[in-house]
From TrEMBL:
Domain Aminoglycoside phosphotransferase: 82-272
PANTHER family on file: AMINOGLYCOSIDE PHOSPHOTRANSFERASE DOMAIN-CONTAINING PROTEIN-RELATED (PTHR21310:SF40), AMINOGLYCOSIDE PHOSPHOTRANSFERASE-RELATED-RELATED (PTHR21310)
Protein name from the UniProt record: Phosphotransferase family protein
């Protein structure tokens, strides 16, 4: 982790973005200026975030965050960035739940202003568990916390999933349904297969990922369960915390309809991904944090729903993550940051974990 260069995430010029943002602000608040504009050092591998203040006497929210669709010149992670869909999802969740979703301010669908569609929301104060280096390594606030403080954060984070799944009326979220036929889970997996096909078009295919999809087909849940609105990228790295309580729930671009276990499997596995990397480097990490049995028990107590088929859903999470990682690696190849691999599976950092899941020796 420490010797691998961080993949390139944009080809955009920050100074030019600031000038264009100020010009756009003038169309919404005449005379307004964007000031103190920054691009976070941990900017994501997909949509980009721009932080700025609004200098204007009538600005209702002076400190803002802007989510900008991925730079089309930067070998994007996903084939499509639907900013109106994200904006609508956040407004839906804000309207029907008590979750701390940032207040949405403006949606701009015309790419002429900043080069791609974007939306603006209020900025939340707080701290986020880091991805680079991951919070499972020493040297960050979550690692330095006490066991009781991390337990408090874990309980509150699982509570975010419980409240989301219980409170959003499904009828209001039908715009998030994947195309196709069959259950929401069938459609979700079909969409991921299509995404994988897009990732490997003209590139080496991954035998491991294809084994994973075959495993899913052979172990399909007898009853996929209730369909709810799922957050999609359900992990603590997408929550801003005030102390150890959620202050803002971010990053809704992967929201979809599906069983509750989609989010649970993702939250559990994305932590395990970091924990496995940490242990692989000879460090202890946080072995007592976000354990699968604890997350499942907490969720069941909060909702009355006992998670099921979790081997399926944690493997599916690891498989989805592998497809994303393969795309990110091919982008590094595109920009000359890493050489063309002989074996596509070597580009998947959690190859050993995914293989162990498929072979039934992980949990």
């Amino acid at each position: 982790m420490s010797t691998t260069p961080r993949p390139r995430t944009t080809t955009r010029d920050p100074g030019e973005l600031t000038s264009r943002l100020t010009a756009w602000l003038g169309t919404r608040l005449p005379g307004a200026r964007a000031t103190h504009t920054t691009v976070p050092g941990s900017n994501g591998m997909s949509s980009e975030t721009l932080l700025f203040d609004i200098e204007h006497p009538e600005a209702q929210v002076p400190s803002c965050a802007l989510r900008l669709a991925a730079d089309p010149a930067a070998y994007t992670v996903f084939p499509r960035y639907d900013m109106p869909r994200q904006y609508r999802t956040m407004r839906l969740v804000a309207a029907h739940t008590d979750l701390p979703v940032p207040r949405t301010l403006w949606l701009e669908e015309d790419p002429a202003h900043l080069g791609a569609p974007f939306f603006v929301m209020a900025r939340a104060d707080g701290r986020v568990p880091p991805d680079v280096m991951p919070y499972t390594y020493e040297g960050n606030w979550l690692f330095a916390a006490t066991d009781a403080e991390r337990d408090r954060l874990e309980a509150a984070s699982v509570g975010v999933l419980a409240r989301l799944h219980d409170q959003v009326p499904l009828a209001e979220a039908d715009f998030l349904a994947d195309a196709g036929t069959g259950s929401a889970l069938r459609r979700h997996v079909s969409a991921q297969r299509a995404y994988y096909s897009w990732v490997v078009a003209g590139k080496p295919r991954s035998a491991l990922i294809e084994r994973g999809f075959a495993w899913l087909a052979d172990h399909w849940p007898a009853d996929p369960g209730e369909t709810v609105l799922t957050w999609g990228d359900a992990r603590i790295g997408n929550i801003v915390y005030d102390g150890f309580e959620p202050a803002a729930v971010l990053d809704w671009e992967m929201a979809a309809l599906g069983p509750r276990e989609l989010d649970l499997g993702w939250m559990i596995y994305l932590h395990r991904f970091f924990q496995d990397l940490t242990e692989g480097s000879g460090q202890r990490g946080l072995p007592g944090f976000l354990r699968r049995d604890a997350v499942e028990s907490r969720y069941a107590r909060l909702t009355g729903h006992t998670p099921r088929d979790m081997e399926f859903h944690t493997l599916y999470a690891a498989l989805r993550h592998a497809v994303v990682m393969l795309r990110v690696a091919y982008r590094q190849v595109h920009f000359g940051e890493v050489p063309v691999p002989e074996d596509a599976d070597a580009l998947i950092l959690h190859r050993a974990s995914l293989e162990a899941m498929i072979e039934g020796r992980y949990w």
